[in-house]
Structure formats: C-alpha cells, structure tokens
Amino acid sequence: MRIGCLLCSLCFSTMLKASEEALSVDQVVPKNVELAFPNPNNIQADISDFDVLSLVLMSNEEGERWAVVTVENTSTGRRTLTQKHLLGLFANGERRAPLDFKQILNGREIMSLTIGFGESKFPLLGVYSRLD
Questions:
Q1: CA atoms of 28 and 16, how far apart (whole Å)
Q2: CA distances from 79 to 53, 55, 58, 60 (A)
Q3: Which of 32, 50, 63, 111 is the most exposed place for a label (fewest CB within 10 A)?
Q4: Sign of torsion, CA 71 76 81 84?
Q5: Chain centroid offset of residue 100 CA
Q6: CB atoms within 10 A of CB 89
C-alpha cells in the first residue's frame, strides 16, 4: 500500500509540474498597436527584410514569455531570420531580443514561428522588426 501512495504522490507532483509549465495565450495583438515607451539607449533590431504580420503572446506561471510571430520575408531572395532581427517590448518599457533561433525563409515566404523571450515579471506587449 505504501508503494501505491508513493507512486500516486509522484504522479500527482509530476502532473502539477507539467501544468505549471503550460503556456497560456495572453492576447492576440493587432498590427496597428502603437506603444511609445522611451528608448534612451536606442535599442533596435537589426535592419532586415522581415516584416512582422501578426502576434499571439503567451506566458506561463513561471514568468516565461513566448510569442507566435508571423513574419514575411519581403525580399524576393532567400533570407535567414535570427534573434537579431526582432525585439520584444515588455510592459516596463524594456526591449529584449528573443532567445537564440535561426530560420531560413524563401523570397516572399510567410511563416509563423514560436519564439521564446526568457523570463520576466512584466508581460510581453509586442514584437517588432526594423525594415529600414
């Protein structure tokens, strides 16, 4: 009987841990949202041919921030999208590049990617690129 209780306890704690890590959708962000936090250090994404078309922001109880970002390669040629080409804007005005990633997109290709931004006590409000 004791082994059964131990097994049940292990299963329950594993289930709790798994549920803590699950992501919840925070919001779908319309493209035309303008936020005007100061940027005294002029933190910007690298110039690229990638345009952010839409965002779905997600987080979990541990403060991990994620986004499903739909991007378009506006060039006719093949390009590589990396963390240097995007910036996340947080509710405290902080701008932060996403965690390392690399994705190749063909000319004019549109693709949705799930991208992590690490942990923050402040919500992620948006993700943007810089075309020029």
A1: 27
A2: 17, 21, 27, 32
A3: 32
A4: negative
A5: 11
A6: 20
Inter-residue contact 80 to 103 (CB < 8 Å)? yes
pLDDT at 20: 59
Distance from C-alpha of 118 to C-alpha of 111, rounded to nearest angstrom: 22
Q: What region does 108 belong to: left with phi over 0, alpha with psi -120 to 50, or beta?
A: left
Give me the pLDDT at residue 132, please.
Answer: 84
Phi, psi at 58, each rounded to 5°: -140, 160
Could you read off the pLDDT of 64-74 as tens digits, one per residue?
A: 999 999 999 99
Q: What is the SS3 assignment for 15?
A: helix
Handedness of CA 97, 98, 103, 107 (dihedral sign): negative
Instruction: Determine the residue type at 90.
Output: F
Rounded-to-integer distance, Cα 99 and Cα 38, Å: 23
